[in-house]
């Protein structure tokens, strides 16, 4: 008896598993677009007489309202009439249904498929137990944007815009803004049908990052003209190539103005660095020049007026950006101002007068025709002039020295700003 019971249960299980129909329990479609309900079937026993015949019904508690039936098109209920067809080949185990011009009347309709209903009865398989409920969306979901690379300005970046649709023969139109480059869009063979009956489509674009802040916008226009969009911001680090002070020989004269220019080459197009000097209260002019599509030069010129106390100090420029900074400097070598003719001439006249006084006093004491005496007077005058000139030269001037520009690389070159 136990063996017979197990055998009977095995037969029932075989009959139960002899047929199988699969479709998503719920599916979403966009109003005005089309919708495909993915459906597949398989059987091991009780094969259909006409395996290519597939009929779709509206699920109700009583009756079998037709949604799709090529044999009896006039019996199809109004909301689905002339809107339904098969999407796929039943010989390949497909029973998928295509619904065109989806409208609000289709919202929350529960449908099911029946294979060869004239020959495969409910006793063989309960087709109405496997249903799919339609949800009609009035607004499409915004696309998804994914960004790869582009960590620094000038680097390559890939932007991918991903969207889903329920109408395979009328794909949405996708556009990208905020990045220029070559496009690649998935074609028919690469579209992916996911489990809930939606198709995935991706537009990919690769380009070069031109600014430290980029807004990538993806716009999707679905069948029927319904549009949705998404925006994603990409922050990229800008870089600098070098910073330098010119001229790099810092020989300055006390009280005489001299211009020094600090220049930094960088890729910060939207937010260029600001340059400051360690000496304040001096005339400064700033400028910014675009060198190439991705590089600019920011400069600052200071009119430096040296004082005696500046000798041995440094003239430093600092470029600040994004909370970081880089510096360049030159050593200051201050020369005291050389005396001009307006000072030298009176001194010479004074020395000559002194010499004349000496000669006059000497002549009062000794005759002028004494050769030794004349030589002595001449040597005294000459030594006095030379010694006086030497003292004046050492007091007002000194031999110039060179000051070489120094760069403080607080951020190494080619590092992000």
Summarize the structure.
The chain crosses the membrane at residues 338-360, 372-396. This protein has 417 residues and is an alpha+beta fold. The chain has helices spanning 2-17, 341-365, 371-396, and strands at 19-22, 26-30, 35-37, 40-43, 54-58, 66-68, 84-86, 97-99, 110-115, 132-137, 144-149, 156-165, 173-177, 181-185, 192-193, 199-208, 213-221, 227-235, 240-246, 251-253, 257-266, 274-277, 284-290, 296-305, 314-321, 324-331, 333-335, 405-408.
Radius of gyration: 47 Å
Helix content: 10-25%
CATH class of the largest domain: Mainly Beta
Shape: rod-shaped
Structural class, from helix and strand content? alpha+beta
Q: How much of the sequence is in beta strands?
A: 35-45%
Strand order of the largest sheet: 2-10-9-5-6
The overall strand count is: 28
Biggest sheet layout: 5 strands, mixed
CATH architecture level-2 label of the largest domain: Sandwich
* CATH topology annotation of the largest domain: Immunoglobulin-like
Signal peptide: 1-18
Keywords: Membrane, Signal, Transmembrane, Transmembrane helix
InterPro entries: Ig-like_dom, Ig-like_dom_sf, Ig-like_fold
Protein name: Sialoadhesin-like
């Amino acid at each position: 008896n136990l063996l017979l019971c197990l055998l009977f249960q095995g037969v029932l299980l075989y009959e139960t598993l002899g047929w199988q129909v699969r479709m998503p329990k719920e599916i979403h479609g966009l109003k005005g677009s089309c919708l495909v309900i993915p459906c597949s079937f398989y059987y091991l026993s009780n094969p259909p007489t006409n395996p290519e015949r597939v009929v779709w019904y509206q699920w109700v508690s009583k009756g079998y309202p037709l949604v799709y039936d090529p044999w009896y098109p006039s019996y199809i209920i109004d909301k689905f009439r002339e809107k339904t067809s098969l999407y796929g080949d039943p010989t390949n185990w497909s029973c998928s249904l295509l619904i065109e011009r989806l409208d609000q009347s289709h919202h929350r309709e529960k449908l099911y498929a029946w294979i060869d209903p004239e020959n495969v009865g409910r006793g063989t398989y309960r087709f109405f137990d496997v249903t799919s409920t339609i949800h009609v969306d009035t607004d499409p979901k915004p696309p998804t944007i994914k960004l790869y690379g582009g960590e620094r300005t000038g680097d390559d970046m890939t932007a991918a815009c991903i969207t889903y649709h329920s109408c395979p023969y009328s794909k949405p139109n996708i556009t990208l803004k905020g990045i220029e480059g070559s496009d690649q869009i998935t074609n028919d063979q690469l579209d992916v049908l996911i489990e809930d009956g939606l198709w995935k489509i991706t537009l990919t674009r690769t380009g070069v990052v031109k600014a430290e802040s980029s807004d990538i916008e993806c716009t999707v226009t679905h069948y029927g003209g319904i549009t949705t969009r998404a925006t994603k911001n990409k922050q990229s680090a800008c870089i600098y190539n070098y910073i330098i002070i010119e001229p790099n020989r810092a020989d300055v004269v006390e009280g005489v103005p001299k211009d020094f220019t600090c220049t930094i080459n960088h890729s910060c197009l939207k937010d260029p660095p600001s340059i400051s000097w360690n000496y304040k209260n001096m005339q400064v002019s700033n400028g910014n020049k675009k060198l190439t599509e991705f590089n600019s030069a920011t400069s600052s010129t200071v009119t430096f007026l040296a004082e005696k106390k500046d000798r041995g100090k440094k003239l430093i420029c600092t470029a600040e950006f994004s909370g970081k900074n880089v510096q360049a400097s030159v050593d200051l070598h201050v020369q005291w101002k050389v005396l001009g003719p307006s000072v030298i001439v009176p001194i010479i006249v004074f020395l000559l007068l002194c010499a004349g006084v000496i000669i006059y006093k000497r002549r009062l004491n000794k005759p002028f025709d004494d050769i030794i005496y004349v030589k002595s007077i001449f040597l005294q005058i000459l030594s006095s002039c030379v010694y006086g000139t030497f003292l004046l030269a050492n007091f007002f001037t000194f031999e110039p020295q060179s000051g070489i520009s120094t760069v403080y690389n607080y951020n190494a070159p080619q590092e992000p700003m």
